[in-house]
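Exercise 7.
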Amino acid sequence: MIKFLRLSLVAMLMTVCGNLFAQTESITLTFPDYNGESVGSYTKAWTATVDGQVWTLDGFNNNNNGWAFVRCGRKNNDHTAILTSPATKFKADTYTVTVDKTSNLESVTFEILNGEDVITSKTITDFFAAGDVKLQFADGAVGYSYRLTINSTPATANGTTQISKVVISGTAAEEPGEEPVEETVAAPEFSVAGGTYNEPQTITLSCATEGADIYYTLDESEPTAESTLYSEPIVLEQTTTVKAVAIDAKGQASEVVSQKYVIYDIVKAQNIAFAKACDLNTVMELTLKNAVVLAVGNRYCVVKDATGALNLFSSNLDVAVGNRLNGVVKGTYTKYNGTPQIAAGADYSDITVTEGDEPEAALMDITEVAAEVNTLMLVKIENVVVEKDGNNWYAVSGENRIQIYDTFKTNYEFEEGMILESLTGIVIPYQKGNKGDVVYEMAPRSEADVVVDQIATGIRETIAQRQAGAIYTLDGRLVKGAPAKGIYIIGGKKTVVR
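Solution. The predicted structure, written as tokens, is:
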């Protein structure tokens, strides 16, 4: 279903005043058909480049380039997502967005921009629904860009709004059959579109008008022939608005164009404790010094240095438990349900991996495990009983207990009343929606982390051996092959083989 909304010059109610013979042009953004970033969260700002045109997205998730669409809207949180087009090289008059689904909308706004200046703004919340939402307008111009802002209320799941395509179309700057127009000076063009970046940007300015000089400012003032003459690329290391104008030999000036570059300062975190003390969503360079890998699996790579532990979420590192990591990780510090981590999409190219000894778990009483200081640490408890409460399993000692959760997908199996000689695992915090109290769980990394205590026979075996039906003689020797007739220990019980 296609929905139309007409926007006038003043009220943004749309008309298309096209010449039937006008030459049309368009730019299109589809997913994942672009040279953009792999994004796995709903909080990142990123860019998607199509045919040299740079679109800016903030608050949209593309499931690490796994979706043919993007989604926005967060579980349990208010959320704002912004999609900004590049400046068009034609006079746009139609903006079409393919909406696959949407819910929990607070407001949706469509804006026409000249650089950072808002030419027209219209709230289209009631009009924004599943289907092709087509916005038509008369106040587009060459060099204008177009911004769609989606504000969502908290939902029960992520990704409440899904977009699969955006098309901006209109008439070419010069239409066939038009009368010759007075020669004008082309506006300067920027090699990098304005947007949000986490590293310095180098900007090159150019002008299509031969012989025209470019003048620019970096202090928000309007550029004139008295401003700085452009002669070499501009290096920006902090948030800056660049305004530029081109002036030809006759003294004729182009329109003034501008781009704003928001550049995050990169925090230098010298160790894990420093990183965990930073605000959430801090962009940083984290130095790892002989950090040992404690656990790997299910998008986890838990590492520990001399100051603490965190998770390298969905890292591309080829590592195993016991490896040592050294070097600098470039990424964003965040938390997921209370778990401190470097978010997906970080740069690990500087990290070196070396062999190392198996990490040793810290032996502690069950009452000591559930503490913030032990978050993501490798611990061991001894002499506990396994009990089931609802669908959850717990390690119990007296009146104290801690949940056992299969975070690393080892698929081990417990039995009610099973006595464990020892239980080793990573202490995982769980904080629903990053709000409320934190619950701590123990996550064994493999079946070897769960050792069953066979009190009745004195035979010590892992859960894997027990589940495989290992057979022992009465004096504790493992029987290989089919046993002869006699009495044996199978599954912790004396059994007669006839």
